[in-house]
Amino acid sequence: MKTLMLGNEAAARGLYEAGCAFVSSYPGTPSTEITEYAAKYPEIYAEWAPNEKVAMEAAFGASLAGKRSFCGMKHVGLNVAADPLFTISYTGVNAGMVIAVADDAGMHSSQNEQDSRHYAKAAKLPMLEPADSAESLAFAKLAYALSEEFDTPVLLKMCTRVAHSQSVAEPGERIEPAQRPYEKNGAKYIMMPANAKGRHPVVEERLRKLSEWAETADINRVEPGRDRKMGIITSSTSYQYVKEACGDTYPVLKLGMVWPLPEKKILDFAKSVSLLVVVEELDGFIEEHCRNLGLALAGKANFPAIGELSQNLVAEQLTGEHRSGVKLDVNIPARPPVMCAGCPHRGLFYTLAKNKLTVMGDIGCYTLGAAPPLGAIDTTVCMGASISSLHGFSKAGGGDGRTVAVIGDSTFMHSGVTGLINAAYNESHSTVIILDNSITGMTGHQQNPTTGYNLKGDPCTKIDLESLCRAVGIRRVRVVDPYDLAACDAAVKEEVAAEEASVIISRRPCALLKYVRHPGPIAADADKCVGCKSCMKTGCPAISVVDGKVRIDSTLCTGCGVCGQLCKFDVLGGKKEA
Fold it and tell me: How large is the C-alpha radius of gyration of the chain?
């Protein structure tokens, strides 16, 4: 029965129907829900791995054992997994292996824009790119068939608009193939130089055969148009914009496999139209390939390589029609992202800002500590970079010893621990602050190795952060409650002054976790308020000043008590009456 599905939900359904038995991923918006939906099927073993590299290697191991496997990640996560990706391209697979990568054009929740199609080309791997939920389901199933037919991992490229939009898909039944026997084959799977040299020609021949397959594949289709003065090559969400803008006016070559590309089909299509136009988001990937085939065309000169495309932009460029859309008459106030009321990171960041420290930041919701009024972060690069950057900064004499790194518990397990090992091993005089909020907060409360629960919510091994830090060589390890500003201030001052590497664990659960019980909103005594605005220094969204007096929004306030510690006039101590 046909039903509305998120693109990520449909992709997970495709994994299920194809008989996938093993899933290992690291959460990353907009890819996360594929794994979360897959975990709901009891026939699929599903886990959160510490990082994307581990996830891909685990999925390869399951494939090697003869079970169809999957790993999912966002575009920057594929950077982390690039090492195994390029070598698994050489080894090939046993049972089918599918790798989903979700790009984030427009950077809705990412530190960069990145076009993952380049990875398919560089690693010489096939990449399928669905344009809606129905294709997300179908392409996930097709990916396993291709993986086993051509002995290759297959990349499934999602993007924000496909992953997080709903469209119609039709679920089917699960067909679980028999487990393939594992056979020892050193020449295929042991990638030392002599064997790797033998595998490279295999990879090139595989790419040639995939190119032949792409020429006749149904997923690369020509849709006829009434007017052949222009023909459009496109894929993914760009295809949806083209169809909305032009309907069946112009012929369209809709590509479902974006690498390798069907060269003959492209050349034949180009001959059938007067003007060739490529419509694609981010880089001119298809455009470059077409130009290398000697084709003249319009592409990135008309469609930007920065940010998302839109129906209006595509319509204006293809038809000359200016569509302004519907303008709202209501003046909606700006809502910049902000740490939640009661967020355990706020008190710690206030302490860092008050002490005027240089702070190397990391990837997580605590990156919002960079925003005013806190302004407590100096850099954010990638997962785990805070600790390594701190070490180099300190060794180079930066910051006069008044520099720290902040990193979340999940990010620390992802790639921060190796930076801490480096700091201990090379005797850095640096202070690392692990913001332990007992969950992976940024991507929607996924479990991680420090929480004591696995992806399916079952109790499991819990990594002890204090013991781990001491085990890698850090002698100075202490835990503070970020709601206690005096304790935070003392800890930061003492550890920054220490002549060796140290770790402060700022520990309190995320305020949005269901099991967390809050004291409840506080009351503000307006008669005592002098309008000094000291309470505003933490940037809590539950606090405002109206007519010179502090006001507490009781629908937001959790009663954490941080603001009361900043008030010298006992304005914010009382409890709101029930």
Answer: 27
Task: Give the DSSP letter string of 141-164.
Answer: HHHHHHHHHHTS-EEEEEEHHHHT
Question: Where do runs of H (alpha helix) occur along 355-484?
Answer: 385-395, 409-411, 417-425, 465-471
Instruction: Render 241-307 in DSSP notation, one character per residue.
Output: HHHHHHTTSS-EEE-SEEES--HHHHHHHHHTSSEEEEE-SSS-HHHHHHHHTT---B-TTTS-SSS
The 10s digit of each residue's pLDDT in 352-369 is 999 999 999 999 989 999
Give the whole-number percent of the chain exceeding pLDDT 90.
93
Judging by DSSP bridges, how do beta strands 22-25 and 45-48 pair with one another?
parallel
Give the residue among 387, 366, 388 at the shortest CA–CA distance from 377.
Answer: 366
Count CB-CB contacts under 10 A for residue 187. Answer: 9
100 phi and psi angles, rounded to 5 deg: -95, 135
**Of 60, 58, 220, which Cα lies nearest the Cα of 128?**
220
Contact predicate 55/93, CB 8 Å: no
Give the orientation angle of helix 193-216 with respect to helix 263-271, to 10 degrees: 30
Q: In the predicted model, is pLDDT for residue 234 greater than 70? A: yes
Given the structure tokens 């009024």, which residue do they identify? 373
Q: Is the bond preceding residue 30 a cis peptide, omega within 30 degrees?
A: yes
